[in-house]
Design brief:
With about 375 residues, the chain is of the alpha/beta class. The chain is about 35% helix and about 15% strand. Helix 3 runs parallel beside helix 4 and helix 8 packs parallel to helix 12.
């Protein structure tokens, strides 16, 4: 047996990305891989009561560490965990699902074995993972290293789950150690696109008299796409009145003076409703408009006066700019907001604005105060 195997290669690459714990439940098709996990110096094993729990544990780990890993056996194990994988996909959580499968020869001979559907076809469960993973691979001796790298890079760069099927006999197959680190993520943002977005955003932001005339609604993609620092820079440049969606609980400092609460359309508390719906220019940062986030689609968003930032695109009014990564768009907005003139009399909260029949460009739509008292301390994020 070679001193370096496919299992060692896989575990080394996971450790390189920061996944130093693998959650799961042992199964007979994963035992050889598990031996290597136990012996590995950088990756450890955490056994769980069942595969679904392991999937949720890997999901929670990935939200904190940036990537998680889950190991299950073929068929019965991976299907137990697929609900957790689907949840990770829905919320942009990078989890690598390692599945130990029957030996390559067994699959080639189409043997009827346990944990299968009894028809000699071994691709059923991989096919079930297609809608809930960004990349998949069935490892072979000739392609193992390249396919491991491809899937892990996709998980890292797209912040979505990936799937690796490892036949039992392949775990001990020889595989040279990697000659170099995984390639750095390819840049998403196009330079010309960023310049065009900057010009459009600058013109729209100029319609605001000061940063206090802006509003910002923060969504969960800010956290998932590692753009929290850039978001905080936008908020600090104003300061900008802001709120967060239900899904993005605690993505911003809820004790900050500009925080108005949670926004969910018509069911929002008045301070949060005013901060978002009365803004002369509204920034939607990584927000996914769903029934629950929007108060069952009762949100009031004036698109001509809105800058919306998605994962890889942005819009200013009706104009869309792509490809443009969310962190890059937020960093640009931080610079633009910092260039706005301060509110008259300094950064103190503006006075109560009366309702008015001014033109839509003037933008006030209610008599709510734009800056609000600090809300009570929120409970910690689960």
């Amino acid at each position: 047996m070679s001193s370096h195997t496919v299992s060692d290669y896989l575990l080394g690459r996971l450790a390189e990305l920061g996944a130093d714990t693998i959650f799961g439940v042992p199964g007979d098709y994963t035992l050889q891989l598990l031996d290597h996990i136990v012996d590995h110096g950088q990756v450890s094993w955490t056994g769980c009561t069942n595969e679904l729990n392991a999937g949720y544990a890997a999901d929670g780990y990935a939200r904190i560490r940036g990537i998680g890993a889950l190991c299950t056996t073929f068929g019965v194990g991976e299907l137990s965990a697929i609900n957790a994988i689907a949840g990770s996909y829905a919320e942009y959580v990078p989890v690598v699902h390692l599945v130990g499968a029957p030996a390559s020869g067994v699959q080639a001979a189409q043997r009827v074995v346990h944990h299968s559907l009894g028809d000699g076809i071994f691709s059923h469960f991989l096919d079930m993972h297609v809608p809930v993973t960004c990349a998949r691979a069935v490892l072979t001796p000739a392609t193992a290293a390249a396919e491991i790298d491809r899937v892990l890079c996709a998980v890292r760069d797209q912040h979505l789950p990936g799937y690796l099927l490892l036949p039992a006999d392949l775990a001990e197959a020889p595989c040279p150690p990697p000659a170099e680190p995984l390639p750095a993520p390819a840049p998403i943002t196009d330079t010309a696109t960023l310049e065009a977005f900057t010009d459009a955003a600058r013109r729209l932001l100029a319609t605001a008299r000061s940063p206090q005339d802006l509003g910002l609604l923060a969504g969960l993609l800010v956290h998932r796409l590692t753009a929290t620092a850039q978001l905080n820079a936008v908020l600090a440049a104003g300061p900008v009145p802001h709120a967060s969606t239900l899904w993005a609980k605690s993505v911003v400092d809820e004790n900050a003076p500009g925080f108005a609460g949670m926004y969910a359309g018509a069911i929002s508390d008045p301070p949060a409703k005013a901060a978002i719906e009365d803004a002369r220019v509204l920034i939607l940062a990584g927000v996914q408009i769903t029934d629950l986030n929007s108060g069952f689609f009762t949100q009031r968003v004036d698109r001509p006066h809105t800058i919306e930032l998605a994962a890889a695109s942005a819009s200013v009014g009706a104009a869309t700019f792509a490809p443009l990564a969310l962190p890059d768009a937020l960093a640009t907005l931080a610079t633009l907001v910092a260039g706005l003139p301060p509110a008259a009399g300094g950064p103190a909260p503006p006075a109560l604005r009366p309702a008015s029949s001014q033109s839509p460009a003037a933008r006030p739509r209610s008599a709510h105060r734009r800056s609000v008292p600090r809300p009570p301390r929120s409970p910690p994020r689960p």
